[in-house]
Write a structure and sequence with these properties.
- By secondary structure, this protein is α/β, with parallel strands linked by helices.
- The chain has one domain: 2-Layer Sandwich (Double Stranded RNA Binding Domain), CATH 3.30.160.
- It has a 6-stranded mixed beta sheet with strand order 1-6-5-4-2-3.
- Helix 2 crosses helix 3.
- It is elongated, with a radius of gyration of 23 Å.
Length: about 180
């Protein structure tokens, strides 16, 4: 009886977690800085992208890294920032990080055995599991003169290889840079 109660509680918790919407959470932390002014220049850090965790090859690869840089350049350009090649002359240094991990979802399905007027036990339980890739994208802007972090935007969501498309990266980066000065 106790096992059945534990299994039912697990099923309830799993069901609630599985039914929650998988919206990307965006959080931004920034500090006032003259380097964030419209028209400021930026350059990519010598190591522009770093992946941590258990990278999924469909998401973390050279093609996606190039898309990420291209879409970041497009979004920052739309905000009025100018890309220059020499990091020693830029107002801002840009770097992104991608943290990827695997999340395991489990669901419990229970069916009672055929019962007459009274059931004295006998049930059939089945646990199904699925793996999902959870990712956190972090975009950092550093004031080159001081070395201080002046802007950090993070986006956390379940991701798939579809999220590595130029269109989706652009949309996510626009959301992440919405609070940058125009």
């Amino acid at each position: 009886m106790r096992l059945k109660a534990c299994l039912m509680a697990m099923a309830l918790i799993t069901g609630v977690a599985a039914s929650a919407p998988a919206l990307a959470e965006i959080s931004v932390v920034q500090t006032p800085s003259a380097a964030l002014a419209r028209g400021s220049t930026y350059a990519w850090a010598p190591v522009s992208g770093i992946a941590y965790g258990a990278p999924a090859p469909a998401i973390v690869n050279e093609i996606t890294a190039q898309r990420m840089a291209t879409e970041t350049d497009a979004v920052l350009s739309q905000k009025g920032y100018r890309l220059i090649q020499n990091p020693f002359e830029a107002d801002l240094i840009v770097v992104y990080r991608l943290v990827v991990g695997t999340e395991l979802d489990a669901a419990l399905d229970g069916r009672a055995a055929a019962c007459e007027p009274v059931c004295h036990g006998g049930a059939d339980y089945r646990v199904t599991t699925s793996k999902k890739t959870q990712g956190t994208l972090v975009l950092d802007l550093y004031d080159r003169r001081t070395g201080s972090l002046v802007y950090r935007a993070t986006s956390e969501k379940q991701i798939s290889s579809k999220d590595a498309s130029s269109e989706r990266l652009n949309a996510e980066l626009k959301r992440m840079t919405k609070s940058l000065p125009l």
